[in-house]
Structures are given as structure tokens and as C-alpha cells.
């Protein structure tokens, strides 16, 4: 781990992001953010890079299969010893697994076979067993699933984008109180910066394309789902 005082200075010197859907621009450019991040200890910088790589579809080869992706995530997770960061990554990927399942079902696909590695996380088998249920019987775990299913069926990609960004924002934000001036706080800041950046770079010309990207951000068939991905970084 790096110098605690350096991390306190880093965090206190970073401009605070606005509320997600009110922001007109990120609090600073990615170039400037990267310059600030140079104070990270080498092992911390490596961990941050690994977290971002796992959560960034653009970093994945388009030829990679679902099984290969899940295997790569599992291998990467073994190298992340920080429990908070492991939870953040796991929760984000479980959201994507749920969305992938909704989209598969909407396309008329049947329940995956037990040996089909199509998603990541604790709920993959539960979802498979409850494939025909609207929310896969996960209302208590993911109360947003019914709304996500409704929006996908309605083809409301803008509302779906807002729903997904709000989910990942809350997923990251719930750890803020536990980490204010440490390395975890730095990673949380970077991930929140990325979410804001995704929102503000949305414009009318890219609306359909970008909303589709986020709506389709699941593990299933991601070689096809992200052929048009234009954004960088999570």
C-alpha cells in the first residue's frame, strides 16, 4: 500500500463530482485525473488498472467467448486481495449477468443448460432454475429487475440507461462511508468519475447506440453485444 498521507492529499485535492444526472461534465478530465493518480504506489496502481480492465468491455477482445471471459474474471479476482474492491466488481458483474439473462429471455432463448457458462456471480444457477419467472425470484435481492424487464420489453433504452447507471452508481457509492481517504476511496472516485463521464457523453446523436450498449451490458454473447462500443473506461 502507498503512503497514507499522499492518499489523503490526493483525495482532498480532487474536485467532487456533481449528482449523477445533474452533471454536465466530469469534475476533471481523464488526463488530469491520471496525472493525479501518479502518486499511487505501484501495487495499488496495478490493482486499480486490474479493476478497470475487468469492468471495461472495450478492453476485452471481441473474439472472447463467455466462458473465456468468466475464466479471465475469476483469475483476475484471485489477484485482487482488497475485499471492498472485490465486492464492487462482483456486484457490478452480477448486475450485468441479470441484464444478460433478461435480454436472452426477451429474445426467446430457453433456459441455459447447466454446463453453459453464460454469466458470473452467485445467482447464475438460481436464475437458470427460475428462468420463466419475471424477476427470476430475486425481488428481495434485486428489486429493480421487474422494472428492467418492463423497460427492455418496452424498448425504452434511455430509461434503461438511467436505471443501469443509477444502479452502478449506488453500488459504488454505498462503500463511500467506509473509505474516505484511503486507496479504496481513490478507486471509488475513479469508478464514479467513469459513470459521470458515461452519462455526460451521451447526446442525441449517440442516444440509441449508447443506450443499447448499456442495456446489453451483460455477460451473454458479449462478443456481439459490444461491437459498437465507443466509450472508454470502466
Please give a structural write-up.
- This protein is mostly helical and 234 residues long.
- The protein has one domain (4-225).
- It contains 11 helices and no strands.
- The protein is globular, with a radius of gyration of 18 Å.
- The model is unreliable at 203-211 and 213-234 (pLDDT under 50).
Low-confidence stretches: 203-211, 213-234
End-to-end Cα distance, whole Å, is 22 Å
**Total number of strands:** 0
Gross morphology is globular
Q: What integer value in Å does the Rg equal? A: 18 Å
Mean pLDDT: 84
From N to C, what is the helix and strand string? HHHHHHHHHHH
Structural class: mainly alpha
Biggest sheet features? none
Strand content: under 5%
What topology does this entry show?
Elements: H1 4-13, H2 30-36, H3 42-55, H4 66-79, H5 83-106, H6 124-129, H7 145-154, H8 157-173, H9 183-200, H10 207-215, H11 222-225
Helix pairs in contact: 1-9, 5-7, 5-8, 8-9, 8-10
Features:
234 residues, mainly alpha, 57% helix, globular
What's the gist of this structure?
It contains 11 helices and no strands.
Amino acid at each position: 500500500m502507498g503512503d497514507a498521507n499522499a492518499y489523503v492529499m490526493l483525495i482532498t485535492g480532487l474536485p467532487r463530482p456533481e449528482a449523477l444526472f445533474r452533471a454536465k461534465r466530469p469534475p476533471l478530465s481523464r488526463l488530469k485525473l491520471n496525472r493525479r493518480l501518479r502518486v499511487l504506489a505501484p501495487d495499488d496502481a496495478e490493482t486499480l488498472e486490474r479493476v478497470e480492465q475487468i469492468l471495461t468491455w472495450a478492453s476485452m477482445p471481441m473474439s472472447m467467448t463467455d466462458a473465456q471471459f468468466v475464466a479471465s474474471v475469476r483469475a483476475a479476482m484471485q489477484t485482487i486481495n482488497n475485499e471492498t474492491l472485490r465486492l464492487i466488481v462482483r456486484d457490478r458483474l452480477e448486475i450485468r449477468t441479470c441484464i444478460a439473462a433478461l435480454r436472452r429471455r426477451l429474445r426467446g432463448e430457453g433456459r441455459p443448460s447447466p454446463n453453459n457458462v453464460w454469466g458470473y456471480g452467485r445467482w447464475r444457477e438460481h436464475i437458470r432454475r427460475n428462468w420463466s419467472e419475471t424477476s427470476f425470484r430475486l425481488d428481495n435481492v434485486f428489486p429493480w429487475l421487474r422494472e428492467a424487464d418492463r423497460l427492455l420489453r418496452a424498448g425504452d433504452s434511455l430509461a434503461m440507461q438511467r436505471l443501469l447507471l443509477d444502479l452502478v452508481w449506488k453500488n459504488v457509492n454505498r462503500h463511500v462511508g467506509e473509505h474516505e481517504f484511503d486507496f479504496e476511496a481513490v478507486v471509488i472516485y475513479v469508478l464514479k468519475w467513469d459513470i459521470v463521464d458515461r452519462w455526460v457523453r451521451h447526446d442525441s446523436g449517440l442516444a440509441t447506440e449508447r443506450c443499447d450498449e448499456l442495456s446489453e451490458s451483460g455477460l451473454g454473447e458479449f462478443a456481439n453485444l459490444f461491437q459498437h462500443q465507443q466509450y472508454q473506461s470502466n
